[in-house]
Amino acid sequence: MLTRQIPPPIEMVTLLGPRDELLRTMERQFPLVDTHVRGNEMTFAGPAGELEIIDTLLDELLTIVATGQPLNRDAVERSISMLRGQTSERPADVLTMNIVSSRGRTIRPKTLNQKRYVDAIDEHTVVFGIGPAGTGKTYLAMAKAVAALQAKQVNRIILTRPAVEAGERLGFLPGTLNDKIDPYLRPLYDALHDMVSPETIPRLMASGTIEVAPLAYMRGRTLNDAFIILDEAQNTSSEQMKMFLTRLGFGSKMVVTGDITQVDLPGGTRSGLRVVRDILEGVEDVHFAELTSHDVVRHRLVSAIVDAYERDEVRAERRARARAASGDHRDHRGSRRPSERSPDRGSDRDDRDDHGGRRNATEAGA
């Protein structure tokens, strides 16, 4: 049994949440533990291993509360996940790490891998952030860029991404060149508006302090004293990736982000993000940060969706290997290739009238 007395300065509603929401979250995470609360005293009964985690969890939550940061369900669940993972980092250190503050809002990492990613940006010149959608790869990199600019560690921020259509043909867009490329760069503008005053952004862009441009604009340049972010790097070719990385100048820092499971390049083109790790592995001052579905910080359904797609890809690969081993040649939908279909399939098509119906025996014989 574990009994904890919460210090009087801390209101229990801060720890338990409105309508005991956070207490219910803890109870769901520890189904083998009976929990009782009376005044400022909390009592837990259950397996020793679970009680040990709960004891540490309360210390971490109290530390977070002491910093003035409010607790929520997400913070409690992520703290429990970190403690179960038996990592060396404390949940309180992860969840109270401030990157940049703007208009009363503070941006900070929410998972252990996100903190490691942010730390890597501080410690290395070139960092690759690789992971699925919603893991904060670009958002955190943008926050670090704004923080570096505010601290005068760099003189400008350069944000770039390849202008590649995401699986659909957009045709000829109207307007000037800037109007045409703006849709591709809009996600970078969205993140920037969260961190910099909207009134300040036009002035910073006019002066060149912040530049948002397609990757093609990087060719032939040397970027000194800049924080450079390449987003959607999975849609670069190997040649484009090399071109971008060699733009690095003195006093600059580069962050390359992408999701290798969402490549929109035309068939046959190798993704530069897929091959760059093999090429640069072991190069000093280059770091590869991996994020997973556990680091998704969008709606909680996004993490479940990412996991579901990963499971489907694994099943598809297993089916493909099984078909290859058995000599069966089917496409990914399970249909035989056209060349392997019965030769009389074409005659079926010939025996249909203009309305798609099959001719009767008299008409077919006529």
Short description:
With 366 residues, this protein is α/β, with parallel strands linked by helices. The protein contains 14 helices and 11 strands.
Describe the structure in your own words.
The chain is of the alpha/beta class. It has 14 helices and eleven strands. The chain has helices at 12-16, 21-29, 48-66, 73-84, 91-95, 112-123, 137-150, 177-195, 201-206, 238-245, 272-280, 300-326, 345-350, 361-365; strands at residues 2-5, 34-38, 41-45, 100-102, 105-107, 126-130, 156-161, 210-214, 226-230, 253-258, 286-290. It has a six-stranded parallel sheet with strand order 8-7-9-10-6-11, with helices on both faces. Strand 9 (226-230), helix 10 (238-245) and strand 10 form a beta-alpha-beta unit. Helix 2 (21-29) packs parallel to helix 4, helix 3 crosses helix 4 (73-84) and helix 7 (137-150) packs across helix 8 (177-195). The N and C termini lie far apart (91 Å). Residues 166-170 and 339-366 have low confidence and may be disordered.
Mean of residue pLDDT values: 83
Note the overall shape: globular
How many β-strand stretches? 11
Strand % is 5-15%
Poorly predicted parts: 166-170, 339-366
Structural class: alpha/beta
Neighbour order of strands in the largest sheet: 8-7-9-10-6-11
The helix content, as a percent range, equals 40-55%
| Largest sheet entry | 6 strands, parallel
Count of alpha/pi helices: 14
Q: Provide the succession of SSEs.
A: EHHEEHHHEEHEHEHHEEHEHEHHH
The radius of gyration over CA amounts to 27 Å
**Straight-line N-to-C gap:** 91 Å
